[in-house]
Design goal:
By secondary structure, the protein is α/β, with parallel strands linked by helices. The protein folds into 2 domains: 147 residues, Periplasmic binding protein-like II (D-Maltodextrin-Binding Protein, domain 2); 137 residues, 3-Layer(aba) Sandwich (D-Maltodextrin-Binding Protein, domain 2), CATH 3.40.190. The chain is 43% helix and 21% strand. The protein is built from 13 helices and 13 strands. The strands form 3 sheets. Strands 2-1-3-13-4 form a 5-stranded mixed beta sheet. Helix 2 links the parallel strand 1 and strand 2. It is elongated. The relative contact order is 0.19.
């Protein structure tokens, strides 16, 4: 009798796993064209991804409009928790303090992983001396109180060229992630650099200064690879110098600067067909959207999980 019970339990577990895989991997069909508006704000890194998804969604649904702002991850969460937006683009998970603001405002949310990113460290194309920096060297440059002002101070043998720094503003999830990965603590950074929420400003700045160094999301390097030079990064933990790419990020070899990207949705907004339909379109076309926007697509495992979360959310909001 015990063996029969165990066999029945094993069969039930296998059946659940098969059902989960089938649900998670199935296409999400939208049905008839949708209408209405969707408002998104937040990360300048995730912004191009959401914009690319919005353009494709709009072509299939001419009466639907998705507007995308780029006030930074922190700024986006502020608006989101004030009930001003439907979606919040984020290049990091929501902080506890932000979650409390949402809770106090009665905003309940869902979080979806939509793409992957490899923070890219870039220099001017006339920089012939640096091809790879270690995490220790990056920390020496970016840590609080750093006095590194010349490339010759970064490594013996580097030339006497003034170092000009460009990077993410303090409202950016990219700032939080980079500082934690490189300096060991989120938001711990020297402050004497050109900080901006607009990654295009970093592109222009690095392009215009021979000794410049900056960082931003992979998509911005992909868009501007003819203007900038990307550096490989050596984590110091084996693996040597690794350049950000689709292959190295998906294989988890580009350390410590690879990360997932998110779109948060208000549960109340998700009840509207145009918002739910937007996510359905996104997960049906995730790889194409990522490619168009210069992002790194979800792994098969990540995509299955996201689709499963989507279907669970649809079911919960249909009650």
């Amino acid at each position: 009798m015990g063996n029969m019970k165990r066999a029945g339990l094993v069969f039930a577990c296998v059946l659940i796993a098969v059902v989960f895989a089938a649900v998670a991997g199935a296409r999400i069909d939208q049905g008839k064209p949708l209408s209405g508006s969707v408002t998104a704000d937040g990360s300048s890194t995730v912004g191009p991804y959401t914009t690319a998804a919005a353009e494709g969604f709009g072509k299939r649904n001419p009466k639907a409009r998705v507007t995308v702002g780029v006030s930074g991850t922190g700024g986006g969460f502020e608006r989101f928790c004030r009930n001003e937006t439907d979606l919040s683009n984020a290049s990091r998970p929501m902080k506890d303090s932000e979650a409390v603001k949402c809770r106090d405002a009665g905003v309940k949310w869902l979080a979806f992983t939509v793409a992957n990113d490899g923070l890219s460290v870039v220099v001017n194309r006339s920089n012939t001396w640096a091809n790879c920096l270690t995490v220790a060297e990056l920390k020496k440059i970016w840590e609080p109180g750093s006095k590194i002002e010349n490339w010759s101070q970064v490594r013996d043998g580097f030339p006497n060229v003034s170092l000009k720094l460009f990077g993410a503003g303090t409202d950016s999830g990219t700032f939080d992630y980079f500082t934690e990965a490189i300096n060991g603590k989120a938001r711990a950074s020297r402050s004497d650099y050109l900080a901006t929420e607009d990654d295009n400003v970093v592109v222009t700045g690095v392009q215009g200064e021979r000794g410049a160094l900056g960082y931003f999301g992979f998509s911005y390097y992909e868009e501007n690879k003819d203007k900038l030079k990307v550096l490989a990064v050596d984590s110091g933990k084996g693996g040597g110098c690794v350049t950000p790419s689709i292959a190295t990020v998906q294989a988890n070899k580009y350390k410590p600067l690879s990360r997932p990207l998110f779109i948060y949705a208000k549960r109340d907004s998700f009840k509207r067909p145009v918002v739910a339909g937007f996510f359905g379109y996104l997960f049906n076309n995730e790889k194409a959207i990522a490619q168009k926007a210069g992002f790194i697509a979800l792994t098969d495992r990540q995509l299955k999980k996201a689709r499963y979360q989507y279907r669970v959310a649809l079911k919960a909001n249909s009650k």
